[in-house]
Amino acid sequence: MLMVGSIGLALHLVLPQVPGVERSLRLVAGISHLLVGAAFVAELASELCYAELLGHSVAATNARRPGRWFMLRLTVTGYGAAHVLPGGGAAAATVAYDALRRRGYGPAKVGVALVVVSVLVYGALGVLFSGSLIYMILARNLGPAEMVASILLLAAMAGVALGVYAAYRRPTLARNMVERVWRRAGGLLGRRLPPGARARLLRLVTRLGEELRSARRQLILHPAGASKLAVLALGYWAFDALCLILMFAALGVAADP
Predict the structure, then answer these.
(1) Does residue 223 form part of some domain?
(2) Rounded to 5 degrees, what are φ and ψ at 154?
């Protein structure tokens, strides 16, 4: 009783002092339950897109397809793991890998399926994000500093995309580029950089190229399903964004989609 009373007293004294808490409570009190329900449906559609994407990818690399109900439960569990455990998406991939292995799927084929899903999902995110930045730049919706930052960010993303493409198409060239950048970084800093970190970076570039080539081979084997997988990857992010827009609307907060 003493602990409950102490917590209640603390909330009574501290909570009103938190900046913006009164406005937040007023927003919650006047929330539109219909729009909150629509936001829930949008988030469920996002999770279903990812579950279908992963299920199709697993089916493409194996003789049998996991059940839809199992894939939805696995997706929601992985989503929770990504938000609770360190590592984010890596934790979710580990949960998915372990669950699929327990279902009897081969380790190499599960690995290829997860690589295909990652390439499509993060590729779709990159397309949406780049398109949004380009739209805001062309529409002049940004201030001078934001404009410069957006252009620099687009240039950095283009550089990363070129580096990934080089790792995929020209692995030797990509490794030589990493070597040159590493030496120049050491020269600019005026000291020799750790050789262990350089070796890990080179292994990462090599592994990235191998995984992208595996994903490409898998998509080429199933060209009809590749477009469907791309649509599901875009749907995953689109419905997720729609959930956010609907929650803003439910709270009465003006937000331009």
Answers:
(1) yes
(2) -65, -40
Among 40, 92, 99, 19, which residue's Cα sits nearest to residue 250? 40
For the chain, give the mean pLDDT.
76
Alpha-helical regions (H) of the chain: 2-14, 21-29, 33-61, 68-84, 89-102, 107-138, 144-169, 171-189, 195-221, 223-250
pLDDT confidence of residue 40: 93
pTM: 0.69
- For the chain, the domain total comes to 1
DSSP-derived secondary structure letter, 191: S
> pLDDT value at position 44?
92
Mean pLDDT to the nearest integer, 186-213: 66
Residue 248, C-beta contacts closer than 8 angstroms, at least 6 positions apart: 254, 255
**Is the CB of residue 173 less than 8 Å from the CB of residue 166?**
yes
Range of the domain at 171: 31-250
CA gap 66, 176 in Å, rounded: 42
In a domain, 115, yes or no: yes
